[in-house]
Amino acid sequence: MTVIRPNSISGITSITGQGGDINVYRADGTAGDLIINNITGAAATFTGVLSYEDVTNVDSVGVITARAGINVTGGDFNLGSTIKLGNASGIITATTFTGNLTGTASTSTNAATAYSIDSAASLNTSGIVTAKSFVPTTGQLSNRNLIINGDQKICQRGNQNASTAQANYVTDRFAIYENGGTAYHGMHQDSGTDLPEFPKCLRADCTTASSYTGSHEAKITYQFEGQDVQHFNYGTASNQKVTLSFYVRSNQAATFAIWFYRSTGNRQNGKTYTINSANTWEKKTVTINGDASNAIPNDSSGDRFTVQWILYTGPSYSSGTNPDGTWETRVDANRYAGHTATIGANTNDYFDITGVQLEVGDTATPFEHRNTGEELLRCQRYCMKWWNHGDSTNNHSRFPPGYYQNSTSGVFFLFHSVPMRKTDGRTLTHNIGVIENMTGGGNGNNLAIMSDGCSNMITPIILSGMSGVSQHSIFVPRIGSAQTDWYLIVASEIG
């Protein structure tokens, strides 16, 4: 081994190591430092830790790669005009952002990877902000919900029993319909629903059990006026999806069908949903496509758009293929295909529903609550009730004044809070035995709606069975003193 220990060496252009590596040692034999002002070459490889201390600039014309990240502890981190993040799967955060953001933020439809803005932050823009869907978490966006009385809090008629081939309304705007079979469902407004947001619900109870065969069916129905669903844009290329959401509970964990129907074009649509746990409230959401065929007439007629919750059905309406969100010409076998529930097979069967909302779009937003007064007025377009508020036998309830047509009949007038749906075809039900003439004369006990003279705000009522009265004289009708539980209902329902 050759040992050279000069204090300095100059004029040497190269040093060649005999064995490969060249080691630098101090005079005492310990490893020494090699101090070089500049290193020039095509490539250099360093092992261990390479530290830069008090270096003003690091210039590179190539690619700098860091294995474990780059940490900037102070000052600015300035980059050029182009920043490429590659296929970054992590999170990019910044306390502030200045400049223009262009391109596509994300193509992901996975809610778990969706971008969000912190609730405490503000998003300011001078341009247009568009979104495929918008889901509010607080407050209300008015008139999203097209369903009237979706929370079931208005119930002017009281409890009703269903009858064959007839729609019977219970909670306002919701009717039960049964066709065939011998099962009957009692319908009533129920409380204590275990849903703090919805203290009321509509319950269908099986009162008489039966099996359904053929075209037998039992269902809850809601119908819209055509003029209230024009923004669906059916019959055009701009037709809209609609989403139905609701809370449901039943003693049966089974598959249930939802049926949508339009009389124009005899069009139907449908979906199924599953109650997973018996006797447990569950929220369900159903979205159906729009329809480029058969525009909905802009009028107040019935069957323009109908939603039905199926309780029980025979095979004639369930043996085919469910439309599954797509409109088609009605095929009876497809109506309720996939429905397996049998609410009506046993007297302990029940079906509860509340929080019903129908809105345009493919997203179910939180339920839109309206105050009771507003909701009652909406209901009174279809049904208005006059009734005794617990008067004693000495406090007679009075109607507005009327006049005698002749010696045996008279006419008085009922005034509505809002315009009724139709000026004709209204129905009258009541629990009044006798109406007295408080201005003198006889009593009457037969009531009917006058065939003409109706307006949207007034319903004339004929009172017959009078005696001892003078034609054309004025009278003020009142309920007889024994009629403490009387009511009178004028309805102009769609179906």
Question: What topology does this entry show?
Answer:
Blueprint: E1 160-161, E2 166-169, E3 175-179, E4 184-191, E5 200-208, E6 217-224, E7 242-250, E8 255-262, E9 267-274, E10 282-288, E11 305-313, E12 328-329, E13 350-360, H1 372-379, E14 383-387, E15 402-404, E16 409-415, E17 427-430, E18 435-437, E19 446-449, E20 458-464, E21 474-475, E22 477-479, E23 487-491
Antiparallel strand pairs: 1-4, 2-3, 3-6, 4-5, 5-13, 6-11, 7-10, 7-13, 8-9, 8-11, 9-12, 14-23, 15-16, 15-21, 16-20, 17-23, 18-22, 19-20
How would you sum up this structure, described in words?
The N and C termini lie far apart (112 Å). This protein is an all-beta fold. Strands 2-3-6-11-8-9-12 form a seven-stranded antiparallel beta sheet, with no helix packed on it. A six-stranded antiparallel beta sheet has the order 1-4-5-13-7-10, with no helix packed on it. Among the domains are: 218 residues, Galactose-binding domain-like (Jelly Rolls, Sandwich); 109 residues, no CATH class. The chain has one helix and 23 strands. Helices cover 2% and strands 27% of the residues. A hairpin with a 5-residue loop joins β2 and β3.
